[in-house]
Amino acid sequence: MDRQLDQDLDLIRQQMLTMGATVEGMVAEAMRCVSDHDCQLAAEVVHRDRDVDDYEKQIDEHCLSALARQQPTAIDLRFLISVMNIVKDLERTGDSAKNIARSACELSCPPPARLRAELERMAHNVRRMVAQSLDAFVHRDAELARQIWQRDDQIDDHYEALSRSLLAKVSQNSDQATNTFHQLLIAQNLERIADHATNICESIIFYVEATDIRHSATRYDEATEPH
User: Fold this and answer.
1) Which residue of 170, 180, 190, 215 has the smallest Cβ count within 10 Å?
2) How far apart are CA 116 and CA 141, in angstroms?
3) Which segments of the chain does DSSP mark as H helices, in order?
């Protein structure tokens, strides 16, 4: 029984990592669509979202099957619960990558160099959060998960600064309203991906430590604590 459960958990782990790699690739390619105004690549990113949806369904089915057929111990039970939560966030990350690709095609041209550099910097940090969260899962590294979780505030600040800058630009030049709207959507979807990476980290900490840090005020208290 234990050997069969171990095999089931290993299969689920590998499927989730494959799904994660697919989603990471979608985010990278979606940003290439923005930089290169490549609508053919955007169509491929949109199409790949179906694969991500299929991964979510398959992994959920395997998790539910393992729960029904086996008798997992506490940590294995937390593993299965955490995986089901993580794949939900990975699926939503794929949706955000799809949204970025679609917005890229709605732009009349690639963003100006300065804005493009800001979006690429934000995307780099967001992709790093996703990749490292999956590494933290593989290595059961709750400390790394906490470090990534703390980083979400930086992405929020970057998004707010970009939003203010873009909205100010619209007020000065209404002819660019459509482009600015889609540039805002791109930044917003990057910020949402960071939120999903943060959720993944919360699931990892629950899996490893049996600690629920959702809705915790710790990160916000540290951010506002006087120095």
Assistant:
1) 215
2) 34
3) 2-36, 39-69, 74-106, 113-138, 142-150, 152-172, 177-209, 218-224
Q: Token pair of 146, please?
A: 């906490």
Per-residue pLDDT tens over the stretch 125-146: 999 999 999 999 999 999 999 9
* Second CATH level (architecture) for the domain 2-220: Up-down Bundle (1.20)
- Could you report the per-residue pLDDT of 60-90, keeping only the tens digit for each? 999 999 999 888 889 999 999 999 999 999 9
Nearest to 107 by CA among 199, 21, 176: 176
DSSP-based three-state secondary structure for 204:
helix
Single pTM value for the model: 0.91
What length is written for the chain?
A: 227
Lookup result for tokens 């990471």 = 24
What is the Cα–Cα distance from 143 to 165, expressed in whole angstroms? 35
Q: What's the N-to-C CA distance of the chain in angstroms?
A: 55
Q: Which two tokens stand for residue 54?
A: 């299929």
Domain boundaries, the chain: 2-220
Q: Measuring CA to CA, how many Å separate 20 from each of 91, 154, 176?
A: 9, 23, 36
Q: How far apart are CA 159 and CA 119, in angstroms?
A: 9
